[in-house]
Write a structure and sequence with these properties.
Layout (H helix, E strand, L loop, with lengths): L5 E9 L2 E6 L3 E6 L13 E7 L2 E7 H4 L12 E7 L2 E7 L1 E9 L12 H6 E6 L4 E5 L1 H4 L11
Parallel strand pairs: 2-10, 5-7
Antiparallel strand pairs: 1-2, 1-8, 3-6, 4-5, 6-7, 9-10
InterPro entries: CheW, CheW-like_dom_sf, CheW-lke_dom
Protein name: Chemotaxis protein CheW
Organism: Sneathiella chungangensis
Amino acid sequence: MTPSNMQDYVTILIADQLFGIPVLEVHDVLRGLKLTKIPLAPAEVAGALNLRGRIVTAIDVRKRLGLPELENDEDGMSIVVEHQGEPYSLMIDNVGEVLSLDMNELQPTPVTLDSCWKEISGGVYRLEKKLLVVLQIERLLDFAGNSTIAA
């Protein structure tokens, strides 16, 4: 293990807000998904897809964060992550670059951030022109609100 305090993040854009996901949590980046609707699923669940023989649940991150849908049926992108041994496809607007950021510069989530966003944030980085919110996948995918319960 190196003494480096650097963490690599895949940056994603959702409604002009920059988010970061630790690069080691990202399994795939997809575009042009063919989804199958899942009856009686929560609103955030957009459907399911087959990815190399595995059934992957697609989550509409805009709905999860209380944001309006993409306009003009724009073709968004998707990041595949794993949570509790299951793959999930996070439907997002766009994928950016990979940034190496110093973990010592990670700041607590601002109290002024929307409560839904605070719930899924692992802190923020103040970049030159934007605020990067670090997404905590386990909290984002915790629809029942169980993320604070100890195992």
